[in-house]
Automatic annotation (TrEMBL):
<feature type="transmembrane region" description="Helical">
    <location>
        <begin position="111"/>
        <end position="131"/>
    </location>
</feature>
<feature type="transmembrane region" description="Helical">
    <location>
        <begin position="83"/>
        <end position="105"/>
    </location>
</feature>
<feature type="transmembrane region" description="Helical">
    <location>
        <begin position="166"/>
        <end position="185"/>
    </location>
</feature>
<feature type="transmembrane region" description="Helical">
    <location>
        <begin position="7"/>
        <end position="28"/>
    </location>
</feature>
<keyword id="KW-0472">Membrane</keyword>
<dbReference type="Pfam" id="PF14089">
    <property type="entry name" value="KbaA"/>
</dbReference>
<dbReference type="InterPro" id="IPR024164">
    <property type="entry name" value="KinB-signalling_activ"/>
</dbReference>
<keyword id="KW-0812">Transmembrane</keyword>
<feature type="transmembrane region" description="Helical">
    <location>
        <begin position="140"/>
        <end position="160"/>
    </location>
</feature>
<feature type="transmembrane region" description="Helical">
    <location>
        <begin position="48"/>
        <end position="71"/>
    </location>
</feature>
<protein>
    <submittedName>
        <fullName>KinB-signaling pathway activation protein</fullName>
    </submittedName>
</protein>
<keyword id="KW-1133">Transmembrane helix</keyword>
């Protein structure tokens, strides 16, 4: 991973965040008349704020992505056996899904939301992870699923805390997931390594 490749991945991730935020926010404005920034509902102002927020989401997602690369490299060095680290990541995905549902349930979320959000995110993460597996190899599925579900869940923590706000959760989680999905699908292309089954080769290349 050289500076040029990192710059490309970082820049594109921010653009993905921008596009996902504007699209998600625009759809939400059409469906929820109360959705707006700082209490203002002016279309132009909201689009500008969505774009800025999307750039921030992209940068935040990129930080989380490289934090996971580092964690993955350290974990593989500790466990030695890749299947042990994969098993722990798989367990973490299940735990995160239950934790998300319980958190929303404890905040008195609508009956459909507290179970449909974790399930929907898990299905989307599974689909993207399947594509990643097809593009690389079978051992890429669990690390990709962990990144797309558990890391997205952690990155979305600010929206999940405090008073329940479905619009804020969706507006934050969708762009973050889009950025994480883009990065995990592009990683082996950027590195020029089709056999990269996880983040570990990327960290090794960067070190």
């Amino acid at each position: 991973m050289n500076l040029k490749k990192w710059g490309f991945l970082f820049g594109m991730c921010m653009l993905v965040g921008l596009g996902a935020s504007v699209i998600t926010g625009t759809i939400m404005q059409w469906t929820d008349q109360d959705f707006g920034f700082m209490g203002l509902k002016a279309t132009g102002f909201n689009a500008f704020m969505m774009a800025l927020t999307g750039l921030m989401f992209g940068a935040f997602s990129h930080m989380g992505f490289f934090a996971y690369l580092t964690l993955n490299y350290i974990a593989l060095s500790i466990f030695r056996k890749g299947y042990l680290w994969n098993a722990l990541q798989g367990y973490s995905v299940v735990f995160a899904a239950v934790a998300m549902g319980y958190m929303l349930y404890s905040q008195h979320a609508a009956g459909w939301f507290y179970w449909s959000l974790p399930l929907g995110l898990l299905v989307c993460a599974g689909i993207v992870s399947w594509f990643k597996m097809k593009q690389t190899n079978k051992s890429a599925f669990i690390p990709s699923l962990f990144l797309l579900f558990t890391v997205t869940f952690i990155e979305s923590w600010p929206a999940l805390q405090g008073e329940l706000n479905v619009s804020a959760i969706v507006f934050m989680m969708v762009p973050l997931f889009a950025c994480n999905a883009y990065q995990i699908l592009m990683l082996h292309r950027v590195l020029g390594n089709r056999d990269a089954d996880s983040a570990a080769p990327a960290v090794k290349s960067a070190s």
